[in-house]
Design a protein that fits this description.
With about 180 residues, the protein is α/β, with parallel strands linked by helices. The protein has a domain of about 55 residues. About 20% of the residues lie in helices and about 20% in strands. It has 6 helices and 6 strands; from the N terminus they run αβαβαααββββα. It has a 6-stranded mixed β-sheet. The radius of gyration is 26 Å and the shape is globular. The N terminus is likely disordered.
């Protein structure tokens, strides 16, 4: 009885054709070998790193201490309370930046939350439980929450000029930038 040997790249099996195309197709010399990015697996994927997304993380940790959590947000700063920015918008003294934070970075580390700031989800497939980040990383999740919030919409009023005393119109998110 002859034991079949593994067929190397560029070789066909003795006396026959290869059963797997990878067994006989070789990579042209000089080309680098690329591998597909490894799939990141998380129990929970939360998209949106604002107050809503952080609240979801808190709720998950109350009920599931061991599940893996990834919190993804396009924001560049740690999640913060926007209403705490109002005094500075109104010309009053601003609170210390750390007082506006919902949690500091240590809280996310302590509660094992994989916080991905300045990160955008470009693809989201709920049927396959799969998401892709802008950097190409793929995430497989068991449960997901879209907590992306909303954006302020400024009405288009072209015929009514703003009074000079009001100055430019801003939103709390524009002050955070």
């Amino acid at each position: 009885m002859q034991i079949p040997r593994r067929v190397g790249a560029g070789q066909a099996p003795p006396g026959g054709s290869a059963t797997n195309t990878r067994d006989f197709i070789s990579r042209p010399s000089g080309l680098p070998r690329y591998s597909l990015p490894q799939m990141i697996r998380r129990d929970y994927l939360i998209v949106g790193a604002g107050i809503g997304g952080v609240s979801v993380c808190e709720g998950i940790r109350e009920h599931d201490r061991k599940g893996s959590i990834m919190l993804v947000g396009a924001e560049v700063a740690l999640p913060y309370h926007r209403p705490r920015l109002f005094p500075s918008i109104l010309g009053r003294s601003a609170p210390a930046p750390e007082k506006a934070l919902i949690h500091d970075a240590a809280w996310f580390a302590k509660h094992h939350v994989d916080l991905r700031l300045d990160t955008v989800v470009t693809q989201f497939n709920l049927e396959r439980k799969h998401a892709v980040l802008a950097n190409g990383q793929a995430i497989e999740f068991k449960k997901a929450c879209l907590a992306t919030g909303s954006r302020a919409r400024r009405p288009q009023v072209a015929t009514v000029p703003l009074p000079p005393r009001l100055g430019p119109v801003h939103t709390t998110s524009s002050f955070a930038r």
